[in-house]
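Q: My labmate handed me this sequence with no annotations at all. I'd like to see what the chain might look like in three dimensions before we decide whether it's worth expressing. Could you predict it?
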Amino acid sequence: MRRKRSLPWIHRWSRPLIGAIAIAGAILTAYLTVTKLAGGEVTCSLDGGGGGCNSVLDSPYAEVFGLPLSLFGLLGYLSMAVFALSPLLFNPEQKRDLRKQLDNITWLLLLAGSTAMMVFSGYLMYVLAFEIKSLCYYCIGSALFALSMFILTVIGRDWEDIGQIFFTGAIVAVLTLVGTLGVYANVNNPVASQVADADGLIPIEQPEGSPTPPKGWEITSVSGDDEVALAEHLTKVGVKKYGAFWCPHCFEQKQLFGKKAFDKVDYIECADAKNPRQQTPACAQAGIRSYPTWEIDGKLEPGIKELDELAKATNYQGSAEFKYKLR
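A: Here is what I predict for the chain of 327 residues:
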């Protein structure tokens, strides 16, 4: 009687291992997605601070089609978990043919998915090292997850045709790389469609459509280093900005800073969450009568302020090569 050849342990456990890694990746990217959409900051260091993670996650590379990149990562990890674990739900004795067919299909999907995620993660590691030049443990962890899933997919089954791995992997890798380069083609020139005036400044875009509570219109301008430095200076010297999410002039003020810089401004929302036209107690107590209003050295300064005005009013000594102007 011929003894049935036992499977190597890696073949028996490859799917559960891939599934476990995919679930861990889904938890990580879900945390980043929820934090990003909620406007919070991630915890990235032992002291509870964000370290370099927030600068990376606030960069133009962290958004695709206006959505957090981590959201697409979450969908990718959930798909990999389904591909890895779904065949295990069927009894190999009772539904042998269905299990075998599903097993073959999902292995190809795992190969394609893990290859795409590994190539994309590799590109992001290049960006992290040479473009952003900052450290993000979440990004590195996700890249290691993708690499681990790829390795387990390759060695996790007895592939009948080794050429199938190379052919499928090569096609998916090329398509992923071309698509990635296309998506990020203009990431370093996001305002290419906006032409600077003779003074070298770019007129800000005006709000379109209706504001969406609780943040209003999405900030479309991209901060430069000088805008970020001014915003950090304003917060350091105790300057506050009061506004309402439905106020178009407040949006224009945000556009002058850009998304990354304005996130560092000490901003106080005056529109009540339940009744937007009703003022919050904090703003009423501060005596805010119009939006936007700046509080500088204890004095209220209503109206939009050009960044050079704010720099002069607060004795800002840094570089002031600001990018935007009102009109």
